[in-house]
């Protein structure tokens, strides 16, 4: 695994978003995944799709 460093403000924002997502009453797993994706953290299986969209 490789370390990724975020600016302090982005780090604290991500932590708050993850904590909030974890309390989602219906689907916390999806809410957490959406919070991670909003921060630009994606699973390997999405790499090809994301790189095509970025090009």
Automatic annotation (TrEMBL):
<protein>
    <submittedName>
        <fullName>Uncharacterized protein</fullName>
    </submittedName>
</protein>
């Amino acid at each position: 695994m490789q370390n990724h460093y975020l600016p302090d403000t982005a780090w604290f924002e991500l932590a708050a978003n993850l904590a909030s997502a974890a309390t989602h009453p219906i689907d916390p797993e999806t809410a957490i995944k959406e919070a991670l994706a909003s921060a630009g953290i994606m699973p390997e299986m999405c790499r090809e799709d994301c790189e095509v969209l970025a090009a």
